[in-house]
Amino acid sequence: MGTRDRRTPTTGIRVQRRIGLTGAQRDMLQACERFGWRLAFVRTPLEHPLPVLFATARDYVVVREDGSIDRVPNLALRH
After folding, report:
1. Which of 25, 33, 34, 39 has the most CB atoms around it within 10 Å of its CB?
2. How confident is the model at residue 37 (pLDDT cuts 50, 70, 90)?
3. pTM over the 0.70 mark
4. Cα–Cα distance between 12 and 40 in angstroms, integer?
């Protein structure tokens, strides 16, 4: 019997991660996913949620509230 990677979210968790995102963020997220980016997590600071997308282990972006992409976000990530 194989083991399941628990880091890979199930469908329900993927949907929950998108709750609270602006329409512009959801649109940009869908566009990025078509090009192979994946939603890793959503930071929830006091202002608004910030989805963080990864293409590779070191190539990531943040989608701002207006749907724009920040390629050099001010995030401290643990690797």
Report:
1. 25
2. very high
3. yes
4. 15
